[in-house]
Structures are given as structure tokens and as C-alpha cells.
């Protein structure tokens, strides 16, 4: 892949910033390389305190994620995982750096009640399809395919308030798939779920990737055991990705980090 070419032809962002002003130094490139779904180079993000001081959150953070795979993003509390995910989602603008992301992309929130808002499962999944000018049959077929991918087709007519947290997460993912999203950004979906729901959601994501054409997922988590489902993973520390690799190499890296930390505090 010709990365320099990928980053040269920068286009303006198509999604307006929600929380911070766009920086003239940040560039966005849309749909350049089919093998890569997400590519960030030297992303920086700072927050201004009330006193006017700039606090760096992301520091020259770089990452690269291949298309069609499930990747996980791990790291200690406060290292910048959610900030990075929000930048990828277009909810925050980097202070500087370059970003390439396939579109459409969808951000699935930790708390599904912030996302699954329509009265029934079918209404919720079809909500985003209004803009696509589909016939009623096409909408039904798209919704049913998306629900099937997350193992929720039997719940089509269910009122959403009767679903468990994990089932709501799966409905939120189905909504994103119905809109033909290419990149799923998933923010600590399993935090509030019991063990059965956790496994149900992660398997639903994995199955969605298998069932869909070229969908890529980035999954933020604290749970090392979830790495077994990952095609690859990123480990962040102090505002940047310090290691990128397959699930088991990241697992070994984190365990080595943990034991060196324990040795340090015991010595
Ligand atoms: N709006 C904000 N104002 C001030 N500091 C912020 C703001 N948003 C994030 N931070 C700080 O930026 C750092 C990174 O936060 P972020 O939420 O991205 O970390 P994280 O890795 O997702 O953490 P966790 O694993 O605890 O969810 C933290 O130190 C956090 O306190």
C-alpha cells in the first residue's frame, strides 16, 4: 500500500465536529485503499483547561486496521481509548494528525439506552433507513438480514424496553449494519453486561463481520478474555498505541507489563 499517497490527497471532513473546533492541521481522506479500514497517523488531541492550559490526551498516536476484521483496543484507565474512538467516530477533531476511515461508520455506545430509542426492535433497526428511499419490502428484508446477523431475528416485534442490555446492544449493532456501515466503533459494550450477554454481544459482532460484506469493527475493552475473539489488537499507554499485533501477542505483552508492574511495587 502506498501510504504517503494515501495521506497526500486530503479531503475536508464530511462530518461536522460536535465538541471542538476543526484544526487546520488535521486531514481526512475518504475511501482510498480497500485493504485498510482505519489508518491514523500522528494523531494529537489536547483539552484546554479552565485556566487556558493545554492538556495533551493523544500524543502522536498511530494505528492501522485491515478491512473485514474485528480488532480490539486495550489499555489502562485514562490512557485515551475513548478519546481515540471518538476521534475515529468524528465526535472529536484531532488537534493534528492524519486520519483515513472507510464510510459509512457507526459508533455504538456503552449504554444501549442512549441508542436504542424506538418502541420496537423492527422500528429501531429500520429507523435509519428512511433516508434511503427503499420500498417497504426492501426495508423489511434489510432489517431482517441485519437482525439475523446479530441473532435477533426472533425479536423483530419485541418492545425494546423488554430486552436485556446485551440484546439492546445487538439491536444497536443491527441498526448500524442495516445502514450498510463499513466501520463499527464499539465503546466498551460489555461493561454493564452479565457473562452470557457479554459473550452474546461479542459473538454477534463476530458473526456480523462474517455475514456482511467488508465490515470492520474496533472494540474497546478492558477484558483480556475477549482477546480470543479478536483478529488483532492495539494496546495504548499514555495517549498513544505502543503495541499492535494479533490477540495472543497483545495478551503476552499486557501480562508482561502487569508482572513487571507487580515486581516493581514489590521490590
Ligand atoms: N473533557 C475532558 N476534560 C478533561 N480531561 C479529559 C476530558 N476527556 C478526557 N479527559 C482525560 O483524558 C484522558 C483520557 O481519557 P479517555 O476517556 O479517553 O481514557 P480511557 O482510556 O478511555 O479511560 P477508561 O479506560 O477509564 O474509560 C483521561 O485522563 C481523562 O481524564
How would you characterize this protein structure?
- This protein is of the alpha/beta class.
- It has helices at 3-8, 81-89, 121-126, 136-149, 165-178, 195-211, 247-266; strands at residues 26-30, 36-48, 54-66, 70-74, 96-101, 105-108, 183-187, 216-220, 232-237, 240-245.
- Strand 2 and strand 3 (54-66) form a beta hairpin.
- Helix 5 runs parallel beside helix 6.
- The protein starts with a helix and ends with a helix.
- Residues 1-31 have low confidence and may be disordered.
- Bound molecules: adenosine-5'-triphosphate.
- Adenosine-5'-triphosphate binds next to helix 2.
Computed Rg: 19 Å
Gross geometry: globular
| Largest β sheet strand count, sense and barrel closure | 6 strands, mixed
How much is the average pLDDT? 85
Number of self-contained structural domains: 2
CATH class identity of the largest domain: Alpha Beta
CATH domain topology of the largest domain: Rossmann fold
Strand/helix succession = HEEEEHEEHHHEHEEEH
Ordered list of secondary-structure elements with their pairings:
Blueprint (H helix, E strand, L loop, with lengths): L2 H6 L17 E5 L5 E13 L5 E13 L3 E5 L6 H9 L6 E6 L3 E4 L12 H6 L9 H14 L15 H14 L4 E5 L7 H17 L4 E5 L11 E6 L2 E6 L1 H20 L1
Parallel strand pairs: 1-5, 4-8, 4-9, 6-7, 7-8
Antiparallel strand pairs: 2-3, 2-5, 9-10
Helix pairs in contact: 4-5, 5-6
Bound molecules: adenosine-5'-triphosphate.
Organism: Populus trichocarpa
Protein name: ABC transporter domain-containing protein
GO cellular component, one term: chloroplast envelope
